[in-house]
Every structure is written in structure tokens, then in C-alpha cells.
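Reopening this one. Same input as before:
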Amino acid sequence: MSDPPLVLCADDDEDILSLVSLRLRRAGFEVATATDGDAAVAIARAQRPALAVLDVMMPKRTGYEVLAELRGDESLRDMKVILLSARVQESDMARGLEAGADAYLAKPFKAQELVSAVEELLR
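Same output, byte for byte:
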């Protein structure tokens, strides 16, 4: 049996981070967590997760900046990325997808909606 895929979750809200990581672990994923954008980039480089769930508004680097860093790195370019944000205007969503995100989920979101999005992207 192969190891479960590693998912990086980055959010500066500890409650959301706990909820997301708990639900993803229950769904059978390995989870690495970060509370700011710099830590997210460091974990992505060190552990090479299959997918990253990034909060858009984080300290040190935003989800957009982390996404740009991942897309600009040859070895991380193909990592799937889901952006999470309370900013739900169509222009915000379009910006996230244009920046290279594979999906954009609006906060508040249902945990099962996130798990389904992760499973879909890793299929």
C-alpha cells in the first residue's frame, strides 16, 4: 500500500487550521501545517506535498505570493493548490485562478466541500 498523499495547509487562523487538518487526516491524508506564508514555502520546498491549501490573507506572504513562488519553482510547479478566502467577489476568485490556483473556496466553507476538492484534484 502506498503512503497517503501529503497535503500542506496554511492559515493564520488556528481554528480553521485545526479543522482543516483534522478533516483531511480523517479522510486519509498526511497533513503538514503552517501559520504564515514563509513557513508554507519552506514546508513546500522541504516536504514536496501533493497539494497545498492556502489562506489568501496570511502574515509574511499572502496565499497569492506563496502560489507565485510555487508556480515559479520548477520542482514545485505541478503541485495542486486550493486557495481559501473570505474575499468572495468574482474578481477575487478570478485573480486566484489566473494566478494559477487549481481551485478557490470561499470562507466559510463546509469541511466536506474542501475534502471533496482535495480528493478531486489528487485523482
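So the earlier flakiness isn't reproducible anymore. For the record, The helical segments are 14-26, 37-47, 63-72, 90-98, 111-122.
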